[in-house]
Amino acid sequence: MTDGTDQPKRAVPPTSSLKRVECPYCGGRMLASRKSMLQGIAVYWQKPWGSTLKMDEPVVPLACVECGAVVMALRDAARVSREWQALTPEERSKVDSEQ
């Protein structure tokens, strides 16, 4: 399946937070999987703080084309980071102590 330019269409459009990801092991280029599911089951990371309605964050498997490492990345890491930064020091210490 092509888009008229002889380039294959992507099944899943790239997410804004995963445009360019560098491998944490070798510094190579990481590519996101077309599906964020493992054997038909969606994978989520559950936030350890609990005052929001949306607790589960979807993750995307990424593979390094250089060394072959596979890691999971949050689909919207920027939003999770903003939520973490918005927590009070007391809320953060509570999360840290429960880990």
Shape: globular
Q: What is the average of the pLDDT values?
A: 75
Largest sheet: number of strands, sense, barrel closure: 5 strands, antiparallel
> Helicity range of the residues?
10-25%
Low-confidence stretches: 7-17
Strand portion: 25-35%
Report, as a whole number of angstroms, the end-to-end distance. 47 Å
Radius of gyration: 17 Å
Number of domains: 1
* Order of SSEs: EEEEEEEHH
Instruction: Give me the count of strands.
Output: 7
Query: Structural class per helix/strand content?
Result: alpha+beta
The DSSP helix count reads: 2
Descriptive notes:
- The protein is α+β, with helices and mostly antiparallel strands.
- It has one domain (16-98).
- It has helices at residues 77-86, 89-98, and strands at 21-22, 29-32, 37-38, 41-42, 44-46, 56-64, 70-74.
- Strands 1, 2, 5, 6 and 7 form a 5-stranded antiparallel beta sheet that branches. Strands 3-4 form a two-stranded antiparallel ribbon.
- It is globular and about 40 Å long.
- Residues 7-17 have low confidence and may be disordered.
